[in-house]
């Protein structure tokens, strides 16, 4: 046997691409492919890392150098004092912890709603699950700007409780939980989990809570990582809603406070403050990227 049949018979996987293995053996083709790969890699680095690297450079560059030669690398040295002045002038420690607290609260609320909602729609599957899923899906087609006024009025005077959440973190945390995309994302992931494991747990006497806590959650680390990244980064960079409900500067996050003070500080100090505010989202992604990109959490869930 020869060709694809022989490959299947011997259990070997034949990789096919735009350029065949025979073409890659030709020096001219091989050099051309490598040149294209290198050009694409450089383009990705420039587009993806270029703005971040420029911001890091501008954060420790005097204003005149940034305006006169924005692309040159430290033409007149490095001004580390920008970072200290930005930290002091912007009260970054206060607004940094405000941002961190807002992001953690939004992450916790979104994760709770997404996991429990997806668990009901996909695992428990009550009689009304299809209708409920359709209603959740329909909310994705409502523009977010349409909901700003009714949501603000609700936060201003919460029904039944008759309290105002303005200038409290709850005004950001609670609306963050109403994220239909996360609920549907988690539900679709749960749909792919082996139903045999659920049935075996029910036979062994596991109730809904035990099934979710001991069986479903340990198998769901990849999707929890994905939702965590989405929730944390979205909350960290959110601007419009915190601007509306957090009018007190003492509780405002960095995304709101930095633009409010940009007209009162030098450019280099503002860029230093912006650079500091980008450190945490990048670190969070680097921490969660393994869960985001791999399915390691599912590998040990099914045994035997």
Automatic annotation (TrEMBL):
InterPro entries: MetI-like, MetI-like_sf. Residues 96-288 form the ABC transmembrane type-1 domain. Keywords: Cell membrane, Membrane, Transmembrane, Transmembrane helix, Transport. Pfam families: BPD_transp_1 (PF00528). It is found in: Cell membrane. Its main location: membrane. It is a multi-pass membrane protein. The keyword Membrane applies. The chain crosses the membrane at residues 35-56, 100-124, 131-153, 165-190, 211-236, 269-288. PROSITE patterns: ABC_TM1 (PS50928). Belongs to the binding-protein-dependent transport system permease family. This is Carbohydrate ABC transporter permease. It comes from Myceligenerans pegani.
């Amino acid at each position: 046997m020869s060709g694809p049949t022989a490959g299947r018979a011997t259990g070997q996987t034949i990789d096919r691409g735009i350029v065949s293995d025979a073409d890659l053996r030709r020096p001219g083709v091989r050099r051309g492919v490598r040149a294209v790969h290198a050009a694409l890699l450089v383009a990705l680095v420039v587009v993806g890392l270029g703005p971040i690297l420029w911001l890091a450079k501008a954060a420790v560059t005097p204003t005149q150098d940034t305006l006169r030669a924005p692309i040159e690398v430290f033409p007149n040295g490095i001004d580390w004092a920008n970072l200290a002045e930005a930290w002091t002038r912007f009260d970054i420690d206060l607004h940094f912890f405000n941002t961190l607290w807002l992001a953690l609260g939004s992450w916790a609320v979104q994760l709770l709603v997404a996991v429990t909602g997806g668990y009901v729609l996909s695992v428990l599957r009550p009689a009304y699950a299809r209708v409920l899923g359709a209603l959740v899906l329909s909310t994705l087609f409502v523009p977010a700007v349409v909901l700003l006024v009714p949501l603000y009025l609700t936060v201003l005077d919460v029904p039944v409780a008759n309290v105002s959440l303005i200038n409290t973190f709850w005004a950001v945390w609670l609306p963050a939980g109403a994220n239909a995309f996360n609920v549907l994302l988690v539900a679709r992931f749960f749909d792919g989990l082996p139903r045999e494991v659920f049935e075996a747990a029910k036979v062994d006497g596991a109730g809904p809570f035990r099934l979710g806590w001991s069986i479903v959650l340990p198998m769901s680390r990849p999707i929890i990582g994905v939702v965590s990244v989405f929730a944390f980064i979205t909350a960290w960079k959110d601007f419009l809603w915190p601007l509306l409900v957090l009018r007190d500067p003492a509780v405002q996050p960095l995304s709101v406070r930095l633009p409010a003070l940009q007209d009162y500080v030098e450019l280099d100090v503002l860029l230093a403050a912006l650079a500091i505010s980008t450190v945490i989202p990048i670190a969070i992604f680097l921490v969660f990227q393994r869960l985001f990109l791999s399915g390691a959490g599912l590998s040990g869930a099914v045994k035997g």
